[in-house]
Queue: 2 jobs
Job 1
Amino acid sequence: MKNLGILLSGRGSNFEAIAKNATSGKIPDARIVMVISNKPAAEGLEIARRLGLTALVISSKGKEREEHDREVVAALKEQKVDLVCLAGYMRLLSPWFVQQFPRRILNIHPSLLPAFPGLEAQEQAFAYGVKVAGCTVHFVDEELDHGPIIVQKAIPVLDTDDEHSLAARILEQEHIAYSEAIGIVLTGNYEIVGRRLNQK
Ligand code: GRF
């Protein structure tokens, strides 16, 4: 059984989808052992409590990045977390944090990277006029929205879309993509060559 640790800052819908798929066995041999938010008001904490999961607030307010990261990593290690899943975690990890879990930190981003990294990716994509949008699950490295790609899902942008309907359809794909990516990483049947992840 592999232990997942979730980091979030807000709504928590990706976390909830992962939780559901871990419980149902869609993500085999995995369980969420803790949810950490840097924001006390994150709705994701409520979901965690409702699901009976350990939910921790480690506030980042007024802390240096690495000081905060040290507290988070200590909590993750105490619970013997094997895989760290960033799910709407609105903080850049320090290089030190990344080194504590080599190729063991995943992130989801609501665009087809490398297009539109950073904030409000769906709005950026819509305003740019793209005809295809989507989401990316990738390993976390020291750069923002940057590490090797594990799974991408693409959807067409419809003429009837606005940025809200587009974001909602991307989110549906996110909920599928994240669990798929976790499954790939946990089975270990892949190799990474340069930036490319190839499934074996
Ligand atoms: C998602 O769009 C995710 O791709 C991005 O932040 C958002 C988090 O949503 N990184 P939720 O908290 O999982 O509902």
Job 2
Amino acid sequence: MALAIALTIAAVPPLAYGVASYQLLNGKIQFIADMQAARVSKYIYAHEALWQYQKLRLTELVELHTASSVEIEQRIIDSKGKLVLTVGPFPGALQLQASAPIRVAEKTIGNLVVASPFTQKSLELLLLGIFTSFLGAFAYFGRAIPMRKLERAVRQIENARDVLARRSAQLNEAQHLGKIGDWSYNFGELDVYWADEIYNLLSYQPDTFRPTRDAVMNLYKEGGATRLLDVQAEVIRYGVVRSIDVPVQRGDGTIGHFAVTTKLRTDSDGRKTGIYGTIQDVTDRKTAAEQLEKLAFHDPLTGLANRTLFHRRIDDVFARSKRTGELGALLLLDLDRFKDVNDTLGHAVGDALLVKVAHLLARTLGNAHFVARLGGDEFAILLEGVTGMEECERIAAEIVTVISGMTVLDRVEVTVGTSIGIALIPDHGTTSTDLLRNADLALYRAKEEGRGRFKVFESGMDEAVQEKVALALDLRNALANDEGLSVHYQPQIDLSTGRVISYEALIRWNHSERGNISPGVFIPIAESSHLICDLGYWILRQSARQAKQWLDEGVPAPAIAVNVSAAQIWNSDLVSDVSSVLDETGLPPELLCLELTESLLVDQNETRVRSVLKSLKQLGVSLALDDFGTGYSSLGYLTQLPFDKLKIDRIFIDRAPESERAIELLRGIIALGRGLGMTTIAEGAEQQQEIALLQELGCDQVQGFVYARPVPPNEAIAFALRLDANVLAAKIKDQQSPRAATAQA
Ligand code: C2E
Ligand code: CA
Ligand code: CA
């Protein structure tokens, strides 16, 4: 041990001093050589064969380097090894050399050699070596140094080294876990120091990638290098600590996100010597942040933009349109019958349908336009940079076509459609509120006109819609307070007996300010504002009560026919409503007939219609197909659905007696009804000749002004009694006449 210490004392200091001096000087002159070679390379313009004859200029260039603290001699040697020029004092026989290539147009045309004297340093080393050898020998032989203490000190140092090694391993581990590595850079040097972990993080190999300052800066992408240089300039100027996120190209070509933290390094005199800091992989954090942002601005179901992002975007579009004069448009979409899909097939199918629609929209519009889901089955599309109204209409028409039709979802067939309201930017609004309202008005109109179509906003839509909205509100109140609504009854007459056999219940509304409003006006409003179900239930209950009262009073033929809107089948549980009304009022089901129009059949998926109608039949009520001939129903429906009665629409009766063709048509319809085993009833008969014709053609029943208008219940009964009395009187007359005749005979 003692010998080892003595040898250490003798050898380590001169060796360490020698190596350090060598490295320091070598680093310095290599740096000077690189720099000078680069400078010469840069300023040589002449032909590559002639460059060396520009000695004066070369000397000037080389002499420019004066900043060095070391004494140097610079030589320029051409590619064949011939000395071209020397500048500076000869450094002596013991010298250190560094050389760097002079390159012009990628070609090495010579070398710049920097030499520095090493004689002085060698002498110093020799003296130091002699001195430490003496010291070592003295320590060993003379035991002049307290060896025990020294041994203990050495052990302590070793311990400390162990601790340090452990700590450094821990630090490495921590860096690894934290995906963080440290770096440092001394001003004037070529290379940046990278901790192992940085190589790891960035997937570079220390033997193939040299982290020079330039090479490192090249790794920062998307303007990252410029931003980082700005930040580091600030760090150097003000001594602050800064951290920025920059995209970095990894060794495998991928881009990751890294936080680069920079701090200033100063020496003991406060001189700024370099910068150092850390690089941390924040790709995961960045991805998480991006996902959060996606959550905040996107609809999780369809992945489309949500309402928040839509509002931001619409503001952008307005700003751009104002700046560039570009035209744009807002398309508001609403799926027809979406609620129905949700209610009958379940939310999973409803969701799948929304995803499908989102997909279709994205495919139809490509990346050119912005699509958002505003909620429920409402979508919005922002068209930007369109040429005009025609283009918007073409796109809207395309969307209507793409979305309407049968879609198969998870083996279930679903029929949907869409209605679109269009508002143009800037014509139909210069604020998002205006634009949205106007597109919404256009959408309302599109739906009202029969769905599955688009409508561009027009001025005036506003007032019409406002009025409807106001009426809907009044109707709601009327219904809630049971004010102004009543039911009138129009008798239905059996043509074979000439007696009333039933009454059609028809709603009447006496508006507190506007007086009587026709059901032709307010029923469609009730339908589009979802009031119809409550209204329908009210009429059903009211007329069933009336019929039961007639029954109890012993009034003849208390059967009633009640109109049912298609919406009641789709948006309410009609079967349970009818059943509870029958229970509550005690009306026998065979006294109730429900009138349904053909529109119900075209619009909806058959399965639901079939099952509701079947359940209604099971309750014991009868069903009439209203307005027959005006809709689109095929004979197929007629034969498959359980209708008891065919109500022939007024247009077939009107003026039929005057037209041979009309008579034939009527004859065909009546024959058809009879052939299917249905009762036929003609509505809207206004003239006596029409009755005669209907009788001749074999129609079973008639309802029309020719007999009676819809009237309050008392009047309806009075009419029926009067008719009965007439019939009775006629019968008596009939019976009396033969007797009179016999008597006379
Ligand atoms: P609708 O079901 O076809 O009812 C027959 C309509 O024709 C009634 O009009 C009736 O007054 C009218 N009418 C009857 N005979 C004649 C005639 O000889 N000549 C002419 N020109 N018209 C005749 P109203 O009461 O104005 O009802 C219009 C429509 O409103 C009804 O047509 C029906 O679709 C709807 N509606 C009326 N009440 C209700 C109701 O309680 N519920 C539902 N859902 N719809 C109703
Ligand atoms: Ca009717
Ligand atoms: Ca009708």
